[in-house]
Amino acid sequence: MSRTANALATPGAKLIGYFPAGYPTLDASVEAAVAMCESGIDVLEFGVPYSDPVMDGLVIQHATEEALRNGFKLKNLFDAVREITSRVQTPVLVMTYWNPVLQFGVAEFARELAASGAAGMITPDLIPDEAAEWLRISDELGLDRVFLSTPTSSDQRAATTTNLSRGFVYAVSTMGITGAREDLDKLARGVVAKIRNADPEQKVAVGIGISTNEQVKEVNEYADGAIVGSVFVTSYQEGGIEALKSKVRELVAGLN
Amino acid sequence: MSESLRAQTGPYFGEFGGRFVPESLIAALDELEATYKAAKSDPAFRAELAELHKNYTGRPSIITEAKRFAEHAGGARILLKREDLNHTGSHKINNVLGQALLAKRMGKKRIIAETGAGQHGVASATAAALFGLECVVYMGQVDTERQALNVARMKLLGAEVVPVTTGSKTLKDAINEALRDWVTNVDTTHYLLGTVAGPHPFPEMVRDFHSVIGNEAREQMLRDFGGLPTAVAACVGGGSNAIGIFHAFLDDENVRLFGFEAAGDGMDTDRHAATLNYGKPGVLHGARSYLLQDEDGQTVESHSISAGLDYPGVGPEHSWLKDLGRAEYFGISDAEAMDALRLMSRTEGIIPAIETAHALAGALKLGPQLGEGSSILINLSGRGDKDMETAAKYFGLLDAK
């Protein structure tokens, strides 16, 4: 059974929080991630810096570019995850673009992930159609695999994604890339409905454009969790780890 | 060869190609593929495109024999397929007109494009003006500076040019920004990708739209120049002009195919854009293909004096042709390309684009190897007006020494 799905299945609204690995340094990113977990996020999405992050807005791109400039290497990722999972119980999902995984070796990457205590992987530029090796090895190792479903996904594609995801399905709230938006799109409800229709038991979390406590609450009325990223990076940039903690506490306030 | 290489279609060319993109784009790629398939077999679409080729672009483009240039090429005949004479000054218009017609069919009123040298951006802005579409062109900030003339052309044509300041500020990053725009505005927008890279169906579709180059050239060679050439040569960045002229000859076993990549400072340096020579298979911009990358799969920045070849990836069909051994790929340095540019200008009165000059420099090396009586058909993919500032600076420096 998926640890991530279990975490989302307990009573109350849920918050999935993103932070980039290696930003601004590897140690600092571990401290930030642990602080987010201790401050109340339910699942950690730990992002792998990549040179060409087409699903990310400028806030995250600038942060991950800095991580790469500061020397982030893939082999450090697993040490960082091991450190985080030794200090907190929160499930950790690694969010990564596909080419770093391909170059590391899909099976080898998966084994290192499992050994480091990560729950699984979110793959923003890998569709299930191209994921044969990852599907096989994640089954073998019992790793969560989170695919994306979007407002333009057909019913059939939404069903495939729902059936092949484990942990949860990442419902893209609106057409666009990551970054805070003021009005959370109504499209999100439609995406979630398609996923529920395909499998009422599957967990679904909504991401992209969520940055306030009110939005987190609203999303949790119809989904199993809200995913927040850019605003955490911004908070960290403005006030370091204390600002990050208070942003997490602000977003989880009153979630029951 | 028993099987026809020409008949190969996407999504995969051997182990290369595919659709490594966010789910957000899949519906648009499916729609594009369906629209393209329907159009391809629709006589009305083919007639409309053929009419534009003839009466707007000025096709067929001629073949010019470069006799004085050939004196420097070891006795090989040099034949130039003059894509520089197309309206807008390069081969790029062939693909742009095809895709703009598809955008109209899909009811999309806005097109976006990436551009390196600005040739694809100019062609896209031109088609947008012709068909009354809104046009936004993403261009690396470095390239907006070295290709300033093309920026002015695009603006005059009514397009918005967005300088891209992320990453290496060149073609790779322009494609990233165009993909971000497309993810956000996919309902109203067609991404008019300018090369044979990207997710399926782009590599196959863009190739098909450019295959007119080789189809014409093959017929012209047989009719006017005494038979098929010994070799066909073209420059390769993403690889659109090369695939365009190669495709008709893929099943002609006796015709050798040569692609010339940008070697930048030189093949013995790490400042180059020689993806097929020095890259490894990986995923960038939606397709699996050769890629300049480090051991972690981070894209490595490419280097070339030519904005249009300054790209760390390459179209998947080229990766397939390389691994099959059907096409051969070599690097040409900035210095070799600039020398060839000047030689072509002074021997033939034709000023080629710096991109194209890589193919010309390649032919100068190839000629002596192929020997007396051989012939090399070169895709003269673009004219050099846009490069006058770069060339003036380059030769000015040399002359001052």
UniProtKB/TrEMBL annotation, chain A:
Involved pathway(s): Amino-acid biosynthesis; L-tryptophan biosynthesis; L-tryptophan from chorismate: step 5/5
Protein keywords: Amino-acid biosynthesis, Aromatic amino acid biosynthesis, Lyase, Tryptophan biosynthesis
GO CC annotation, single: cytosol
Catalysed reaction, written as an equation: (1S,2R)-1-C-(indol-3-yl)glycerol 3-phosphate + L-serine = D-glyceraldehyde 3-phosphate + L-tryptophan + H2O
Keyword match Methyltransferase: no
EC class (word): lyase
Keyword Amino-acid biosynthesis tagged: yes
Gene Ontology molecular function: tryptophan synthase activity
Short name of any one Pfam family annotated for the protein: Trp_syntA
Enzyme Commission code: 4.2.1.20
Self-association state and partner proteins as the record states: Tetramer of two alpha and two beta chains.
NCBIfam families from the UniProt entry: trpA
Role this protein plays: The alpha subunit is responsible for the aldol cleavage of indoleglycerol phosphate to indole and glyceraldehyde 3-phosphate.
Protein name: tryptophan synthase
Organism of derivation: freshwater metagenome
UniProtKB/TrEMBL annotation, chain B:
The EC number(s) this enzyme carries: 4.2.1.20
GO cellular component terms listed in the entry, alphabetical order: cytoplasm
Any Pfam family the entry gives: PALP
Domain Tryptophan synthase beta chain-like PALP: 59-382
Catalytic activity reported: (1S,2R)-1-C-(indol-3-yl)glycerol 3-phosphate + L-serine = D-glyceraldehyde 3-phosphate + L-tryptophan + H2O
MF terms (GO), sorted A to Z: tryptophan synthase activity
Cofactor(s) in the UniProt record: pyridoxal 5'-phosphate
Keyword Protein biosynthesis listed: no
CDD domains in the cross-refs: Trp-synth_B
Pathway recorded for this protein: Amino-acid biosynthesis; L-tryptophan biosynthesis; L-tryptophan from chorismate: step 5/5
Keywords for this protein: Amino-acid biosynthesis, Aromatic amino acid biosynthesis, Lyase, Pyridoxal phosphate, Tryptophan biosynthesis
PANTHER family: TRYPTOPHAN SYNTHASE, TRYPTOPHAN SYNTHASE-RELATED
Name used for this protein in its record: tryptophan synthase
Organism from which the protein derives: freshwater metagenome
